[in-house]
Amino acid sequence: MAATSGYDENEPMLDILDPSDYDNLNDPIPWSNKKPTIMGLTITFLLLQILSWSFVCFRLWVRFRIVRSPWWDDLFVVLYLITGTLGSVALLISIPFGAGQHLLYLTVGQAGRYLVSFYIFNASLNLAATFIKLSLLCQYLRVFEKGTWPHRMSKVTIVLVSLWGLAYTMLAFIPCWPVADYWYSPPDAKCWAYGAWSTEELMGTFYSHTALNMVFDIVILTIPFHLYFKPCMTLKMRIGLLALLLMGALVTFLSIWRLQTLVEHKAGRYPTHDPTWYGPISLILAVLECDCASICASVPIFWPVLSPYLGAIFVTQEVSVEHEYRRTDEESKVQTSSNSLPRPGSQTELKPLESPPTNMNYFYDDEGSAPLESTKSHPGVHTRVRSDSMKDKKRGWTKI
After folding, report:
1. Distance (Å, rounded) from C-alpha 58 to C-alpha 263?
2. 92, 144 contact by CB (below 8 A)
3. 217 within 8 A of 255, measured Cβ to Cβ
4. Tell me: the pLDDT tens digits for 142-191?
């Protein structure tokens, strides 16, 4: 596959392009273009994809097995995960094809394969950005009551995001006609938007897409913000909502940063037409933005189910006090208490210690739990204390 029609794919781009047009060959290598950074980001992207898949799988497990109420937001998050993963793989594939290197130092074949990988990356990330926004907005429709302004705002934003995603995805999938002209680049190629020869048209396409993406991120972030100020919100709920809002703010920050890199280098064509050299930072930020957005969309679904189990890890002792009111005679009460002491799954028996006649009773269990001393007993009232040790898995009942 050749990047320019009529040339051998092993021919250096140096023989095709004019070296005098490239005045950036002695520029310091950006951090995003260095090989250690690229290798580290390769591993990071793989870990982020695993993390995203894990979070989404937790989400789907809760929706299908716990709540048993899947909806459109779950479908969109799955579609995001597929397209986002495809985009990340395309970015990793582009590394040996020249990502982070000067275009002038590539062969025609390398440049062509880079354009193919970028084509897949750009189309996939356009879809992924649309799907994750639709997932969040459909999730809002489940949360907010019909007729309220957040519900209406979510509906309006769904329509706008759908139109935005459809338009730019079509431009990403069909940047030229025929599409293969995007990477073969014949002199008479008919291209537009993402494949435009004109720098102004190419810049306008990237700028408008990224700017609208940033605006939609801010709108989606602000829709649930009013919940923070509701008087019924507990401190724990406020902290959880604030954490989600901060994650959403991180996504918005990445979107703004990506827009700044595009403006700085005019979508890879300033100060020199060198997209393989100036492009990696923008592509990296696009992937990070989508991965963070998927985590932000999935955490609220499974966290309420997962948090009690996480809390149990840090609990070492649980005490439960029960009061029983009996009206039978003393012998019946002793027999009833003896039969009801073990709980399901516990084989511990309580034995009375010999003590002088008094209103104080002591009991201990067979596993060596320390005896507890009761307060003065009252006729007809029995109090039992259940102590569970989370570390030793011991359970015992103590009669007070």
Report:
1. 38
2. no
3. yes
4. 888 898 998 999 999 999 999 999 999 999 999 999 999 998 888 888 99
Q: Is 190 exposed, middle or buried (0-12, 13-18, 19+ CB in 10 A)?
A: exposed
Which domains, from first to last, does the chain contain? 13-313 (1.20.1070.10), 317-399 (no CATH)
Q: What number of residues does the chain have?
A: 400
Distance CA 138, CA 350 (A): 55
Sheet holding 317-325, edge to edge: 317-325, 381-389, 395-399
> Which DSSP string corresponds to 326-377?
--S-HHHHHHHHHHHSSPTT----EEEPP--SSS--EEEETT-PPPEE----
Distance (Å, whole) CA 166 – CA 173: 11
Residues 6+ apart with CB under 8 A from 169: 123, 126, 127, 130
Distances (CA, A) of 65 to 78, 289, 302: 16, 29, 11
Percent composition of the chain: helix, strand, coil (DSSP 3-state, to 5):
60, 10, 30
Encode pLDDT of 221-273 as tens digits.
888 877 777 787 777 777 777 777 777 788 888 888 888 888 888 888 888 88
Helix 72-94 vs helix 280-313: crossing angle, to nearest 10: 130
